[in-house]
């Protein structure tokens, strides 16, 4: 283990002079403003140096390297445009609106499957008011519709049971 020398006592931060008051505050404000100015100048200088470094690297590149770099950029742009074109084509074939394009991703097979599923959901008729949509896609008639159906069928006991349920009385037995 290396010799670290004698232990260094902790440094106490300077205590403010109670007599100084406002002068210290102004001094710190001026120091802060000076530091902000220096920061802005350093940021500008850093941007200049980064631009110069980029230009230097580009200058060192051979014509072949520049062409290869440009070709790679164009290839990436082309791939992105082809994917977007495919996404739009599949959506149009399945009758999807443009606001659903963001939900299509992956390769052609995946996007087609996603588009079919979205088209099924988007084209489904909205649920009738007063009904509950079940997980299987079926709907349970409202309590009013059930009462009407029971009365139409002449099922008085079912009609009474449903009316009690609607009133919040549940399945109480009368005595």
What order do the SSEs take from the amino end to the carboxyl end, as H and E?
Answer: HHHEEHH
How many DSSP-defined strands?
Answer: 2
Based on CA inertia axes, which overall geometry fits? flat
How many domains, as an integer?
3
Low-confidence stretches: none
Helix content: 55-70%
Tally of alpha and pi helices: 5
Rounded radius of gyration (Å)? 38 Å
Mean pLDDT: 80
Distance between the termini: 93 Å
Strand order of the largest sheet: 1-2
Largest sheet: 2 strands, antiparallel
Proportion of β residues?
Answer: under 5%
Classify the secondary structure makeup into a structural class.
mainly alpha
Characteristic key phrases:
mainly alpha; 175 residues; flat; two-stranded antiparallel ribbon
Characterization of this structure:
The protein has helices at residues 22-60, 63-94, 108-122, 143-152, 156-166; strands at residues 132-133, 139-140. Helices cover 61% and strands 2% of the residues. The protein is mostly helical and 175 residues long. The model has no long low-confidence stretch (mean pLDDT 80). The protein has a two-stranded antiparallel ribbon. The chain folds into three domains: 24-60; 63-124; 142-175, no CATH class. The chain is flat.
SSE layout and pairings?
Layout lengths: L21 H39 L2 H32 L13 H15 L9 E2 L5 E2 L2 H10 L3 H11 L9
Antiparallel strand pairs: 1-2
Helix pairs in contact: 2-3, 4-5
Nutshell version of this structure?
With 175 residues, this protein is mainly α. It contains 5 helices and 2 strands; from the N terminus they run H-H-H-E-E-H-H.
């Amino acid at each position: 283990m290396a010799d670290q020398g004698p232990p260094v006592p902790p440094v106490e931060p300077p205590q403010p002079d109670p007599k100084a008051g406002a002068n210290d505050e102004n001094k710190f404000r001026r120091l802060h403003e000076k530091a902000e100015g220096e920061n802005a100048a350093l940021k500008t200088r850093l941007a200049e140096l980064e631009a110069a470094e980029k230009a230097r690297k580009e200058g060192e590149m051979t014509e072949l390297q520049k062409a290869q770099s440009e070709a790679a950029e164009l290839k990436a742009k082309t791939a992105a445009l082809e994917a977007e074109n495919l996404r739009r084509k599949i959506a149009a074939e399945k009758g999807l609106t443009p606001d659903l394009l963001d939900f299509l991703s992956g390769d052609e097979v995946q996007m087609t499957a996603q588009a079919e599923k979205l088209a099924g959901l988007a084209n489904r008729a909205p649920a009738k008011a007063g009904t509950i949509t079940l997980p299987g896609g079926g709907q349970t008639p409202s309590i009013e519709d059930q009462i009407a159906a029971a009365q139409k069928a002449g099922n008085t006991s079912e009609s009474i049971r449903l009316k009690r349920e609607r009133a919040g009385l549940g399945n109480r037995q009368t005595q």
